[in-house]
Amino acid sequence: MKAHLFLNAPKALLYIDPFTNQILEFNNKASALFAIDLTLKKAPKLTCLTATKIFNGCLDKLIHFTQQVLEQGEAWSNDLFIIVNGDKVYLDITASVVDNKLLFSCQDAKLTYSRYHQAIAQAQYQAGIVHWNANETIFEEIERQNQLLLSAVGDGIYGVDVNGNTTFVNKAAEHILGWTKAELVGKNIHDVIHHSHENGEHYKDVECPIYAAFKDGEIHSVDDEVFWKKDGIPVAVEYKSTPVTENGLLIGAVVIFRDITERKNIQGKLLNAIKEIDTLKHRLEMDNAYLLEELNADFNHHQIIGQSINVQQMVNRIELVGATNANVLITGESGTGKELIARAIHEVSERKARPLIRVNCAAIPAELFESEFFGHVKGAFSGAVADRVGRFELADGATIFLDEVGEIPIQLQGKLLRVLQEQQFERVGESKTRHVDVRVISATNQNLQSLVRQQKFREDLYFRLNVFPIHSPALRERAEDIPLLAKHFIDKVCVSLNRPQPHVSLAQMQFLTQYDWPGNIRELENIIERQIILAKSNKISFTFLAKESLKNKSYANKTFTDDLFSDAPISHDRLEDQSISHDHFLKTTIVPPLMSASAHKLLEKANVENALRQCKGKIYGEDGAAEILGLKPTTLSSRLKKYGLNKNDYIN
Ligand SMILES: Nc1ncnc2c1ncn2[C@@H]1O[C@H](COP(=O)(O)OP(=O)(O)OP(=O)(O)O)[C@@H](O)[C@H]1O
């Protein structure tokens, strides 16, 4: 049995007599390893088979090892080798002393090593599986969390491969566009959601920023485009297409997008609000500039004073028409308060939040009318150095007051008619048509119907302007209002001059009421101002008016001689003592009241000419003819027209 075990042991065994060098026994594995002829076994003694023969390439090592085994009882070596087919084959040898002989247990060292490494690999593999299992669980958890995150984010996310086919769709993307993951995965993303621009024009895929990312490897961000929903409706989006690489190779892109509809709506509203603010700001600036002009022109905002039937009827008509949008034509002599009426109409209308825009047609040179009414663009004519807003544009949403409307040149009347009919016009030098909503109130002291007959005023324009006529009665037609008006002006002047209220006796008031006021309410106002300045010890006197009436009567009987056509214009400084400075007196024109109409005109014309001569053609400002005559410069301008006078003829 023992012999059988020895013979079939799994390693090559050599039983060696260290003293005779002879191999006493060897088993089957040894026979194979050392290529020992098995027939030797049958020989009585293995005399021919020696240890040194087997290990003859490394005898020194064999001797050393043998001694080690003998000394220690056992030893191990991997230094010894044998030659097999010319190659060294190192052996892994464990040896021990058995009955004073040596038992070598040998094995090809390569086999030992390979088993050793196999064993290590096995051990590592065993350990690795456990490790891998753990990693796999972690990866699964990360993946699960990633999926949760990708589903939870509010932005839509698509994954696409290098062919543009969808590989991934998150919940938000499904929600925003309505395409499910199943409907999109594997489909070309551009063809499904990005095929057209917002205006419906085809979106070429070569221009698609989503694709661009996996073509050029760059991130592509787009602020404002549309993706198309499943129901065919475009959704405004901003998106970013980021390239995805693996081992340096572009393998696709991730598209992250956001629905910006709400934001765009808010932006739109904001833009509209800003535009509206700009328009309002612009309008406010225009209004301010206009109001400043008016302030500089020393405009006053009196209320209509008077209780006479004539005034009551007039006020009724103002209230009646005020609330409507009807055009109003106010007629009446100069200084009867036509402008006051226009303001009152505007004030009772719904347009009162905006200023009344006043245009004095008598003061505009013919060639500038169109620009004044409708504005012009820079360079439209020489002198047009900047764009200018016309009065009609300024009055958009408000009321325009065309004072002295009879002065509008016939050639411009057609354009004015168009604004009245269509509320449309163009600035001078511009083809763009502008639309306005303007109410027109006009005033005249001329007989427009007579102008129509003379073909100086268009009949159709006259009817357009005269939708609702209001007549402003002359002061002589409302004489009973004189005390009220006088009190009103005394209060006003005393406040502005910081004077104490003067005492007006009944007798003095009678002088006022009995005087025939050719210059109307403006004349009354000016005389009161002058007399307050002249008043001594708080007493105001109007006795001179009686003298004046008498004088006027004598004027009426007199032929027009030296006095009427003298060089000095007729003014209040000729009516009173000269103890007060000239400036205070030159406020009004007193025209004798009892003259015939033609004599009146002749005198008025002569008076204007004298004033022009004295002022060397200067109309406006200090020492101007208007100031000397006590007229508004605009009224004087219209009188120049009326009498065919040219201020330039008086320049010298
Ligand atoms: N009823 C009134 N109550 C108080 N003040 C009045 C009244 N009527 C006119 N006035 C005053 O008389 C002056 C002249 O009035 P206004 O300028 O309105 O007259 P007008 O008819 O427009 O004159 P013109 O034809 O010369 O332009 C103004 O100072 C105005 O305030």
UniProtKB/TrEMBL annotation:
Residues 142-194 form the PAS domain. Residues 220-272 form the PAC domain. The keyword Magnesium does not apply. Pfam families: AAA_lid_14, PAS, Sigma54_activat. It comes from the Bacteria. Residues 304-533 form the Sigma-54 factor interaction domain. Keywords: ATP-binding, DNA-binding, Nucleotide-binding, Transcription, Transcription regulation. This is PAS domain S-box protein.
